[in-house]
Write a structure and sequence with these properties.
Structural class: alpha/beta
Shape: globular
CATH class: Alpha Beta
Strand content: 25-35%
Order of helices and strands: EHHEEEHEEEEHEHEEEH
CATH topology: Rossmann fold
Helix content: 25-40%
Largest sheet: 8 strands, mixed
């Protein structure tokens, strides 16, 4: 399932517009905050889908019957670009356990690239809801590899993916590999360049959020 949040939330579409705007992009703090806010909206929407239970809460004046989450999800993100959205999710699922995975494109002289995976820090995920945040789904290759990497640690009960902008090609690739995933997008673009960049997209989310990196 694919949900385009811009079609349901006018604030999300405003934040996406600011993320895309090359003049506003010069403000790294605002760029990070907009990613965080999209993560917060996604967390709120995902929370509606999660199982709850009744719990008796003692107040100063009596007992209240409250509906609370049956269990917290595991929040996973792809370093480094996903940290902004991860913070937004963590603002809402504040008791969640967290997983961090390093994934990047290793470019070759002929213009092609491979997806390289490195560091992973992961809690127990067996039979748990997992929410993965990655601001851009372009080809979908890195995301598919990351999910496969995570699944080596345990069987995921329910998988949600949160991104700022996705390309239709990447969405199809991810769902072909993981058909039961639900993908929450800030917006969806249709064009992908030969080098695997989304058009119109917004550029390199990691660089825009945290500054340019040295390419080796």
């Amino acid at each position: 399932m694919i949900i385009n949040l811009s079609e349901h939330h006018s604030l999300v579409s405003n934040w996406i517009a600011e993320l895309r705007d090359q003049d506003i992009q010069t403000d790294q703090m605002r760029f990070r905050r907009n990613l965080e806010r999209i993560g917060e909206v996604a967390a709120y929407e995902i929370s509606k889908k999660l199982s709850s239970k009744n719990k008796e809460i003692t107040t100063p004046l009596g007992i209240a019957n409250c509906s609370v989450l049956q269990s917290q999800p595991v929040l996973a993100t792809i370093l480094r670009a996903g940290l902004g959205m991860h913070n937004g999710l963590l603002n809402y699922f504040d008791k969640a356990e967290n997983a961090f995975i390093s994934a990047y494109r290793k470019h070759h002289l002929d213009g092609s690239f491979d997806i390289q995976l490195g560091y992973m820090s992961c809690p127990e995920i067996e039979d748990k809801v997992v929410i993965i945040s990655d601001p851009m789904i372009a080809t979908g290759a890195s995301l598919v590899k990351v999910i496969q990497y995570l699944k080596q640690e345990g069987e995921i009960k329910e998988l949600h993916i949160v991104c700022a902008i996705a390309c239709t090609v990447g969405l199809e690739f991810v769902l072909k590999a993981h058909a039961n995933a639900t993908i929450w997008c800030g917006d969806i673009d249709d064009e992908l360049t030969a080098k695997g960049y989304i058009v119109p997209g917004l550029g390199d989310a990691g660089d825009l959020a945290f500054g340019p990196k040295i390419q080796s």
